[in-house]
Design brief:
Length: about 70
Amino acid sequence: RNLHISDEDDAFVQALHDVAKRKDIDTVAEMIEHKDTADKLQKMGVEYGQGFYFATPAPDIPDEDDGTIH
């Protein structure tokens, strides 16, 4: 969450990403709330991200979907 202002968080996220890369696992960053955080993650090579910086959560599952994961 505080990647844009915390060197400790930066080091932790970088370490997790490095382990994932060595094991050929794509990484997903959550709780991205600031452009600076998104930029840092992109520079690290994190493949996917989600959070309020990109969009607010959707209020409901659409009616035509029963919520089952296929």
